[in-house]
Design goal:
It comes from Sphingobium wenxiniae (strain DSM 21828 / CGMCC 1.7748 / JZ-1). It holds the Pfam family RcnB. Keywords: Signal. The chain is mainly alpha-helical. It has 2 domains: about 15-80; about 100-150, no CATH class. It has a 3-stranded antiparallel beta sheet with strand order 1-2-3, with no helix packed on it. The termini are far apart. It is about 45% helix and about 10% strand. The chain has helices at about 1-45, 50-75, and strands at about 130-135, 135-140, 145-150. It has 2 helices and 3 strands.
Length: about 160
């Protein structure tokens, strides 16, 4: 009887890890598919006619939509990761848009998301950081303070 209980506990801890790995693999596959469709679109723009370009754009749009759906499914099944929590800032909430310039107080190291891979955010480039602003996530150029990308209501 004791062996069955131990096996049950091992299975209960291993199964969620396997499900997460599968979801991450699906997201990687979708990103690869988007890259391939973009490459096909560039090829069609260089050597194809209008119909080829239109079809390639449609394929890119479909691949992006599939990626978004898989990402939403991942967020829905991993609500504990995206939980808002008790997060307070010493400033008011502002709805930032791409291209806005932030003061350094809004994007200092206190608000950095140190592990963007945990949230399935893409890797930031040079001089870019993911910053949390209440429930939003901003990709900010830390040299200029410009907002490069915005994900609204990222946290629940």
């Amino acid at each position: 009887m004791r062996k069955f209980v131990i096996l049950g506990l091992i299975a209960a801890t291993a199964v969620p890890g396997i499900a997460t790995a599968q979801s991450a693999a699906e997201l990687r596959h979708d990103r690869r598919e988007i890259r391939e469709e973009r490459r096909d679109l560039r090829h069609a723009q260089r050597q194809g006619d209008r119909r080829d370009v239109r079809d390639a754009r449609h394929d890119v749009r479909d691949a992006r939509q599939e990626y978004r759906e898989d990402w939403r499914d991942y967020r829905r099944t991993h609500r504990d990761v995206y939980r808002g929590g008790n997060w307070r800032a010493p400033f008011r909430y502002s709805r930032w848009n791409v291209g806005a310039q932030l003061r350094p107080a809004y994007y200092n190291s206190r608000y950095y998301i140190n592990d963007p891979y945990r949230y399935r955010l893409p890797r930031p480039g040079n001089n870019l950081r993911w910053v949390r602003h209440y429930n939003d996530v901003l990709l900010v150029n830390i040299r200029t303070g410009r907002v490069v990308q915005v994900h609204r209501d990222f946290f629940w």
